[in-house]
Design goal:
Shape: globular
Low-confidence stretches: none
CATH architecture of the largest domain: Roll
Number of helices: 12
Number of strands: 12
Number of domains: 4
Order of helices and strands: HEHHEEHHHHHEEEEEHEHEEHEH
Largest sheet: 5 strands, antiparallel
Mean pLDDT: 84
Structural class: alpha+beta
Radius of gyration: 25 Å
Length: 337
Amino acid sequence: MARNEQLIRQHRILQILERYRFGRTLTEIRDDLVDELGLGSLHTRSVRRDLEALQAAGINLDSQESARGRVWKLGPMFRGSHKIGASATELIALSLGRDLLYPLAGTPFWVGIESFWTKMQETLPSAVWEHYHKFRRILHVQGRPAKSYKEQQGMLSTINRAIQQHRVVSVAYRSIDKAETRWRQIEPYGVVMYQSSLYIVAADQSKGQGDLAIRHFKLDRFKKAEALDTYFTPPKDFDLEKHLHGSIGIFGGSKPKNFRIKISARAAPWVVEDPWHSEQKIDEKPDGSVILTVKAAHELDIIPKVLSLGAQAEVLSPASCRKTIAETIEQMRKRYE
């Protein structure tokens, strides 16, 4: 049995009952769980034990006879205890965040966002909404992502379920620089949204064990994903937030290292105004220039930022990154001759 399997089932039961106002029978709940969690089989006795465990935990669940048989549904205390209150200012903040999360449209995550937004519309008084609409007209999110992951929602559901159940996933993956699609078996640890794209943080079993086995796979490059009946044990010391915090970008595969970049006096205010990382260090020089020290897991996190500043930035170390930039500039010079 996968770790947390019972907890996952109980959480999904609550989600199922939230969708059905008139409740579900034990058999219907069992069938929903088998379909949504991708289970091979599940006995109604297990479902009953899950429901009783939720009741014992204080969740308000009712059961009553109906034309379909005995049905289970959320009781009035459960629904009443989740009244939503929000001000017009909070609505504006929520709607701006909703705009930025558009790439999630069509995915299980977006379903939750839209469900919550609908509850807000049904719960809050019209005066609050009128005030919200008045101010929302003068606020606009520019550069909203043009992409969405509607086409990948099935794969994302499979991967998200595998993360919760600690199941190995077989994926057909095509790297951006490779012509052929390769099958990989991965141990998924988490989902990351970075610059409007979704990445799956996972250990690639074909790469061996240890820190170097952890990769960041872009969901756009997944062609197929199948959860296997094979389970894995996540590293006890792995923390997704800490894993990502040490670098400014999404590239993985190695431990973060320090990059030192000299920024001219002309460009220094831009770097101070829009930091590359929350823990970057800036050493101010008498002439107004600065030495920026920032951690990154891969030089490709750094190079685009340096090149965007043109002659106003120079990588000082490591030497390997400095060499890569010099070669890139030389290739560009030849192209523009």
